[in-house]
Design goal:
436 residues; 5-stranded mixed sheet; 16 helices; alpha+beta
Amino acid sequence: MTKKQSKGTVAAVGVPMEVDLDSPEAGQFLAKMKSVEPEDWGTPGHFTEEQYAAFVALREELSKRGPEFRETVMCFGEEEGETYALCRWLRARKFNLSDTLVLMDEAKEERHEAFKADFYPDPSAALGAPVSTYIELYPQFYNGHAKNGAPLYISKPGVINTNSMECVTNLDGILNYHWHVMHHDFGNRLRERKSQMGDRFTKFACFCILDLSGLSASSINRSVMNIIKVQSKIDNTCYVETLSKMILVNAPVFFSASWKIIKGFLDKRTQNKIEIFSSKTKATARLLELVDAEYLPKDYGGDAEDSHKIYMRQNSSGSGLLRQDVQLMTLRSHDSYGPITLGANERMEVSIFTKSEIGASFKVTNDAKVAIASGEAVHKTQAKAGTEEFEKELPTNIQLDSSGLVGPGSFKIRADSKGSRMYSSNYLMSMRVLPK
């Protein structure tokens, strides 16, 4: 076919219209080469004729739908651009128009309640607990961007302790917080990158580092799988095609072996986005190829602050949080923790989280063994433990009187169960050290 020959029209499978392939727009969208790199598949300038037909039909359908449907499709705002947003959705269903429309309708339904709540703009209110405490239990944060412009996201699922998590929030709280992260935090960072890079930033996606250190086969229990399930459902339904690259580091042997099997079920494009490293040296070398050292935390081989300092600073809510110690107590009779040392210009806040109906008394003493603060933590409920009603209740959170918890000095915390030694119950203590 020469340049002067007409390409005519085409209608893809499931597309109820024929599309003009000789239009100026078609010339910009259609691929110039027969071979397309996996990362360019389904993007403007690399379309097949059938993909272009599906795109035009989807754009026409979008114009007929209401504002909530459009907000579902343009989930990161109009800044992304209609063309690139539609391409994301089409790639997620391999340019099958009917399947893409079904997915969009499912997304509209999935996000409806979160939409009414403005996607939970206050993260602590979403969780029902201070976000700084939650992040200590499940570290996750953004820091700068990768060399391809995508926001850099780091998560440490290997350290999740579900007993601790269940003292602080519930599955609904985790779900609401994830809506906040995706819509507000991630969305704001994408829009910021767009304003900085302009037309050079067209793929609204993130570069993800998953740190699996601490992960064991036994730690992947039902509670962890439920967290993964609810978060994945949101991402796979409402925020499709938003992964630019995923690097898994500190992978344990059992995970690396499982990946060889899992990989066989993924298409080539998805396989190319995921790399797994057990060797810290090899992981660091690869990360520095993809991320500038100024944005990569020190614990991953970069020049940025240690990751713990980064996520604590980001989630201190302007309080000036200096450091935080979070400890889980599993009580049968009594236990103690400390000493906790405060400097001359420091003070401490102590919070106790629990869903225990047994209850426990807590006492903070100073160097002279004088009681400075005390309180009782017990979850009062009419629901029966283990029922759906009980699971939907947020845990109880008490804060001890902190007026005497000032430095310089050292303090210990003692807890005494209100029940018998036959039963154990969990309490999470959060010790936040702040400037006076």
